[in-house]
Amino acid sequence: MSLKAFHLIFVTSLTLLSLSFSGWAFANGKILFGISGIVAAILVVIYGIYFLKKLKKISYL
Amino acid sequence: MEIPYTIQARPDTGVYNAKLGIWLFLASEVMLFGGLFSSYVLLRVGAEPGMWPHGWLDVRLGTANTIILALSAITTLLAWAACKVGQFGKFKFFHACTLLCALAFLGIKSYEYHDKWIHYEIKLNDGTFADGHLVEKSEDFDLAKKTGTVTLHGRIVNDETLLYDLRSQKDIKLDEVTVKAADIKQMENYGPWHNTYLAIYFTMTGLHALHILGGSIVIGFLWGPGRKMWKTNPTQFTNRIEVSGLFWHFVDLVWIFLFPVLYLT
């Protein structure tokens, strides 16, 4: 597995963490943290798409 | 003697040797951290009701460190991608960013450790508890001789369980509390010896911080003296950057699990 593939796993995990963090924040009444978590998740997904396009030629192995 | 398969993929494994080596190493790391995460789960489910701490760690600092490590993972990838397309100047810049992120992470972690180190729980002779951050100890303070006083910025509670779940208590009022040594039954800071939560917290985050430190040394070497290889063998150098990046991503991934487990639950 190349760094590209591992980075994809990392980006996916980070997106899930951002969404979980957001859920935790809303459940605990921390609205600002909750919104930040959702924004972070969106930004990470956008970055993930950008990085996949950018490294299209590099192998996953 | 030339070491084989530093650039080309080995036919039987399909990858160059260093990549196979780092994945075998990371597999052992998964077992190491997996064991610690399992210990955490067992300690937590085995804790007496109401005696597992909540809200002891600053979520803002944990979030800041998560963002810093996420950025460092991106800069590591960009450094590798820069090597792939032969842009050595960009590689140096992105790797320097990774190093700065690592230093910032360790700086914040040190601050958090220091905060716990100066946080004391004092059991008093009357059965109450003084809890807070150390402001000062009088010059003649000696717990064994029962002389002098200690001042904390914190509060006094009647029930120790009130010190465990901080998240459910709103508007905790803190003030300066001065306690005489003669009134102290037991005094202990929030080090790893304080309770099982702090023991596993310091073990897991300490081990993780050591990995950050180790990774920083390797990345620092490749950024500094090790970059000479770029002139003689750029492909092997790029492979080295990839291998160090794989380790760095693993360390970042561990933090992605540590952060919610320790800071949010």
Describe the structure.
- The complex is a heterodimer of chains A (61) and B (265).
- Chain A is mainly α and 61 residues long.
- In chain A, helix 1 runs antiparallel to helix 2.
- The model of chain A has no long low-confidence stretch (mean pLDDT 93).
- The longest helix of chain B is centred in the C-terminal third of the chain and has 31 residues.
- In chain B, a hairpin with a 4-residue loop joins strand 1 and strand 2.
- The termini of chain B are far apart.
- In chain B, helix 2 runs antiparallel to helix 3 and helix 2 runs antiparallel to helix 6.
- Chain B contains 6 helices and 5 strands, in the order H-H-H-E-E-E-E-E-H-H-H.
- Chains A and B meet through helix 1 and helix 2 of A and helix 2 and helix 6 of B.
The count of domains of chain A is 1
User: What is the number of independent domains of chain B?
Assistant: 2
Largest sheet of chain B: 5 strands, antiparallel
Gross CATH architecture of the largest domain in chain B: Up-down Bundle
Question: What is the distance, rounded to the nearest whole angstrom, between the alpha carbons of the first and last residues of chain B?
Answer: 54 Å
Short description:
Chain A has helices at 3-27, 31-54. With 61 residues, chain A is mainly alpha-helical. In chain A, α1 packs antiparallel against α2 (31-54).
List the keywords.
A: about 60 residues; 2 helices; B: about 260 residues; alpha+beta; 2 domains
Question: What's the topology here?
Answer:
The complex is a heterodimer of chains A (61) and B (265).
Chain A: H1 3-27, H2 31-54
Chain B: H1 17-45, H2 59-84, H3 88-117, E1 119-124, E2 129-137, E3 149-157, E4 175-180, E5 184-189, H4 196-223, H5 229-232, H6 234-264
Antiparallel strand pairs in B: 1-2, 1-5, 2-3, 3-4
Helix pairs in contact in B: 1-4, 1-6, 2-3, 2-6, 3-4, 4-6
